[in-house]
Design brief:
The protein has about 450 residues and is mainly alpha-helical. The chain has three domains: about 160 residues, no CATH class; about 120 residues, no CATH class; about 160 residues, no CATH class. The protein has 17 helices and no strands. The two termini are about 15 Å apart.
């Protein structure tokens, strides 16, 4: 079920009106739970997918109850392994089983985000950070909230229930002023802008004979990266705007990632909720454990380098357990750990003040930003590209890497010339213009928007 579909829009409108109604404030959790279950039922492709979601949900509930009652590390580890095993079985094993079509297991949309929420609940339950009596209704509502089920953003349980149970009193006019433009601009990015770059990406896959190979690959790389950003950030804006109207506070997921100062900074701006999740539940415990067994303080900065590599390798494997995604994780881990290692060595050699002066230079900043963005755009190639089969294909990719870096660096240098906060246009005018473009786009495409890639991860 897409966010441009009539069922989604109906669920969003009805649920928002009920959640805003003073008459139904005591039943906000029940209303959102029913709406979310209805949405998930409509978005699930087969009975097999529904059974996988149900099995994951039941497994998570049992694990949470066990670690709540018995707080010991072996049980915690077993619970985590059990949930991950259930996820891998649903994603890697069951889709290959020969069963009737109605029972076939497909990508099971939303399953990975459900797994992340369950793992968070297990760890926090073990740490005593959850209510002693977690209600099944709140558990289901948190896992399947229709606004975040498809592709996040990820949110910790206490923050989710806080805005659901006790929404902040807002002036309706302020909610409309903030929520509606966010929704309109989100739909603009999700449809027309993402559609434009998706078309560029598709067209570059079958270039004309006059188009040089490196240029075609570079167009594919840039087209896919911009399409993914517009689609994913547009989706996030839509659900956050709807959440704003319904007095549900959802976290931001993007903060102008293409203006990042380096690759580390990029990952504090791209898919922020996922990065924060991995930082909290993978990077921090891993680095803490490694420091605990390390007896040489001089090695502590390099432990951080190793921690980044392992964390981003696992983040790549989250997209799928295969050679393609393992390579994607290796490239991400290599880029982030190399960035961190460079910072450690540069600070040690230059000192804090000279290093800060160096990174503040306009040329250095533009090149560093260009490297970060170009590296990420090229790394995304592991999500769609066919492995080079000849030296000529490898030469095309090498040439494309140079083109992407040059183009991105020039754009980054030009972006630095513009003010960080351009003059604001009237919100009503912006919203009306965005809605008009979205409607025109949907009319020309018969209501079909580009696919939201992250729903399958």
């Amino acid at each position: 079920m897409s966010i441009v579909s009539i069922p989604f829009l109906l669920i969003a409108v009805v649920t928002t009106l009920l959640l805003r109604s003073e008459r139904w404030q005591a039943n906000r959790a029940r209303i959102l739970t029913l709406a979310s279950v209805a949405f998930v039922a409509g978005a699930t492709a087969s009975v097999g997918d529904a059974l996988c979601l149900a099995a994951m949900t039941a497994t998570g509930w049992i694990a949470i109850r066990l670690v709540t009652v018995r707080k010991n590390t072996p049980l915690l580890a077993s619970a985590i392994v059990l949930v991950i095993a259930a996820f891998l079985a649903s994603r890697q094993i069951l889709p290959g089983v020969d069963v009737p079509p109605w029972l076939a297991v497909g990508p099971t949309i939303g399953l990975s985000y459900v797994m992340f929420r369950i793992l968070h609940l297990i760890v926090d339950a073990h740490g005593g950070e959850l209510p002693d009596r977690l209600r099944p209704r709140d558990y289901v509502c948190y896992l399947f909230c229709y606004l975040t089920f498809l592709a996040g953003p990820l949110q910790r349980f206490p923050e989710f229930t806080a805005s659901l149970d006790a929404p902040s009193p807002e002036v309706p006019r302020i909610e409309l002023r903030d929520g509606l433009p966010t929704i309109a601009l989100g739909y603009l990015k999700f449809t027309a802008i993402a559609g434009l770059f998706f078309t560029v990406f598709l067209q570059a896959q079958t270039p004309a004979s006059w188009c040089p190979g490196p240029v075609a690959v570079a167009a594919s790389v840039l087209g896919f990266a911009l399409y993914l950003y517009a689609s994913f950030s547009g989706y996030t804006d839509v659900v956050r705007g709807i959440g704003r109207l319904a007095r549900l506070d959802l976290p931001a997921n993007f903060d102008r990632p293409f203006l990042a100062s380096d690759f580390l900074d990029f990952w504090s701006r791209w898919h922020i909720s996922l990065s924060d999740w991995f930082k909290l539940y993978v990077f921090n415990p891993l680095v803490k454990a490694l420091i605990a067994v390390n007896v040489r303080p001089a090695l502590v900065p390099y432990i951080g380098v190793l921690g980044f590599f392992v964390t981003f390798l696992l983040m790549g494997l989250w997209h799928g357990v295969s050679e393609r995604f393992a390579l994607y994780g290796l490239v991400l881990g290599g880029g982030v750990s190399a960035n961190k290692l460079y910072q450690v060595l540069a600070l040690r050699r230059l000192g804090r003040r000279p290093y800060n002066a160096l990174v503040a230079r306009p040329l250095y900043a533009a090149v560093a930003r260009g490297l970060a963005v170009a590296y990420f755009a090229l790394a995304l190639g592991f999500l769609w590209a066919i492995a080079p089969s000849s030296l000529e294909d490898m030469a095309h990719w090498a040439g494309a890497a140079v083109i992407v870096f040059v183009v991105v660096t020039i754009l980054c240098a030009l972006a630095a010339k513009f003010p960080a906060s351009p003059p604001a246009l009237p919100r009503d005018l912006v919203s009306a213009g965005a809605i008009a473009i979205v409607l025109a786009y949907l009319l020309t495409t018969q209501g079909v928007a580009p696919p939201l890639v992250y729903t399958f991860f």
